[in-house]
Amino acid sequence: MSRLSRSVLAGVAVLPFLSLGVSAAAQAAVAPLTGAEALQQFNLVVLGNATSNSHVDGRAWIGGSVTGGDYVQHSGSTPASNYAGLTVMGTASGLHVNGLGSYIGGSFVGSTVNSGSSYIAGSASGSNLNGPAYVAGGTSGVNFNGGRSSLPSTLMQTNADAAGSTNFSNTLTSLSNSLKTATANSTVSVANNKATFNAVANNQGVAVFNLDNTTSASVFSVGEFSFAANGASTIIINSSVSSAVIGANFLGGQAQSLGKSIVWNFYNATSLIINNQFGGSILATHASLTNNQNIEGGVFVNSLTQNAELHLQSFTGNLAAVAPVPEPEQYLMMLGGLAIVIGVAALRRRRVALPGLRLA
């Protein structure tokens, strides 16, 4: 985007005479995230429902309802964001939030927020809120240990505005579809129960692997993964597989050492099962994911059954070098507002020529 375009958009964002309601104006202050920003700010994004028997180190956003789990185990290492530590658009039950607070769009049941403020748009029952809290609905058996606010604070409102500001389904699916079109410059070889990923970094440090169904089946059936990164700081692995059960061991501790650099783009997958420690961010917006072992990286899926930990390995690669960044929806809305303003201004300038025209 050019400097002029950004200046125009910034100007439109603060025009006081656009016809926006109070809630729309508030939400306009929280810009929607790009796909790259989502991968950086979140440890977990689930478009639908989630069930957890484990914990998430960083920030999480759940588009449906969630049962169980511990969230934001490492708040001090979690990247800054307008989003709360845990955002749930539906009902949240039987869970703990350990830092950075929460936004709950539905009811909050049998749960605890240990630290940070909470905005609960529905009701709350049988829960402990140890930071400042605003509950819009009724309450029963709730301990407001951090105090109950009659109105949401600025931070609570920011978290609430952020909660629905990004269409994660569209944004992440668009990113996935863009990544899958990247031209492969790297190859994987399979021999002796081991898949070796031989990266070839381009001049921007990006290595791209494109695995078709046959290659994916071969790669995901082995017992060991080995990466020759060869200086690549961004590793994109596109797979067209529709389902996979992955139990390979990442050799040499590469699940941890490369966790921040890899994006596994399962653009066709509807079912994924992880049975061994796994390294890298999983981008699979159509998939139901079950992880039976820890994942060193972010998870961005349709639904989740979590049986092991999600460790905070915020993606640090350069996606702009692989996939063009589409205009966020809000920029397009602001451009529409600019067109209206320009049109009104033009009509005002013509009022002498059109004396019968009256403008408010």
Specify the helix fraction band: 10-25%
In total, how many beta strands?
A: 32
Q: What can be said about the biggest beta sheet?
A: 19 strands, parallel
Mean pLDDT: 87
Shape: elongated
Report the sheet-strand fraction: 25-35%
Number of helices: 8
Kindly provide the radius of gyration, computed on alpha-carbon positions and rounded to a whole number of angstroms: 23 Å
Please give the domain count. Answer: 3
Instruction: Name the structural class.
Output: alpha/beta
Q: Which residues form runs of ≥5 with pLDDT under 50?
A: 1-28, 327-360
How far is it from the N-terminal to the C-terminal residue, by CA?
34 Å
General description of the model:
- The chain is of the alpha/beta class and 360 residues long.
- Helices cover 22% and strands 31% of the residues.
- It has three domains: 57 residues, no CATH class; 127 residues, no CATH class; 147 residues, no CATH class.
- α1 crosses α8 and α2 packs across α4.
- The chain has a 19-stranded parallel β-sheet that branches. The protein has a six-stranded parallel β-sheet with strand order 3-6-9-12-15-18, with no helix packed on it.
